[in-house]
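In response to a reviewer's request, we include the raw inputs and outputs for one of the modeled complexes. The four entities were modeled together in a single run.
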Amino acid sequence: MPTDAFLADCRARLAFDLLSNTWNAVVLWALRDGPSRPVELRERIGGISSKVLTETLRRLQFNGLVERQAARDASSRVEYRLTPLGRTLLTPIDAFGAWAFEYGDEVMAAQEAACAGR
Amino acid sequence: MPTDAFLADCRARLAFDLLSNTWNAVVLWALRDGPSRPVELRERIGGISSKVLTETLRRLQFNGLVERQAARDASSRVEYRLTPLGRTLLTPIDAFGAWAFEYGDEVMAAQEAACAGR
DNA sequence: CGGGATCCAGGGCGATACTG
DNA sequence: CAGTATCGCCCTGGATCCCG
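The model returned the following structure tokens for the whole complex.
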């Protein structure tokens, strides 16, 4: 990867856009351990409404990161799973998780310091 | 880092939130090579208004990732630079850049395929 | 040049209710 | 259970103007 000319490169922004909303990364992460049904996802994630979850999954689907599989019987059981492409995104997301685990406290401290200063 | 109990962990979401807007990652990236003045940042980034750049820098400042340094003379020259904490974030961002460089085409292809299917 | 003040449009996100 | 339809808030992001 070239270290310069990054910003004008649409590819980089494309990747940033994939993470530029509240739930994309969270849902991808929630799918890391295998296919899941919406109910499972919701309880695993917590705090996400059915509607927003669906919207997020549609977005991820649109970008080729997730695929949807309906049950073959008529029951309303559906599964979502990461595509191979989506799975490759776990590595960078992992990097962020590790970062948060290590530096999360510092960020929160900075936030409180900034608030205190006001 | 624990691989489970990630989603309920506020720390992880905190990190995701740092990337959950359009410009945070881009501006951080633009600062990677050293302190810069807003004008420089704007031309390096491209497509960002003065107002939005300022807002973004304030956000990053609030989170302790960037610091602002006014010139000592009265001229209106200001520099922004990454804090040590902010610099640690470059590694995960790098991971995303590398990912985009490698898989960007696949994402765009998936998008086009999704559009064609409609 | 830096950056505030406005005004404005779009969309993310939430709560709720409803259909199959 | 999965998903859609509404309604509405609020924030991001963009354009413009103006001040030190």
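As requested, we also summarize the result in words. Residues 21-23, 48-49, 51-52, 55, 76 of chain A lie near DNA strand C (CB under 10 Å from a C1'). The radius of gyration of chain A is 17 Å.
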